[in-house]
Design a protein that fits this description.
alpha+beta, two-stranded parallel sheet, three-stranded antiparallel sheet, globular
Amino acid sequence: MTGDLKECVEKNTGQIMVNEFGQATNMHPLTKVNQPSSPKVQNNIFSIGDVCLSHANEAKTIPSMYQYCYQVIWNVYTAATGGDPAHMQKIPAMMHVVQMLPCGDSKGLMSFNKMLKRDDTIPKQKDQMRDGYMAEHHGDKKAAAANAKNGKDFAGFMGIANGCCYCLPMHISKSKEYRELEKKGVIAKFDAAYR
């Protein structure tokens, strides 16, 4: 991004800063210090994935993108069709962290929020995901249907981890974590880096 849009790029990471709707902005989403004197939002420029920096500061993974891509897609549609901006949807303030790490051909680790589990099916699952998405990309309708089902199952699983089952080790409670970081002064140190 160059010219007037250059101010929408975070100076340390090179990521596009976005507001709660996924729109490019010159306002830093993670700190209140050193904000521009004339805030700007690019109403027709949106960003998701590893190139953007949102207020959720999410892990740059496919599961993270699944958690907010539909809101941003809706917002792009709303802006492109001249819809009412009041109908735009916000990116979730908290997102789950789901990661799978193969360790060789037959071992692996799965991390879901603060829960870590050894899982020897991880290498096979990662291969199946890769092969399924590549097959769908090449027009395989069976793979597309399987991927759609997996996406629906994943959404259901995320719903459980967001819901009332607070006893689950992977239940989302990052707002509490943020308050703990604030108490320890971590947030203040981060803000000080931008002064």
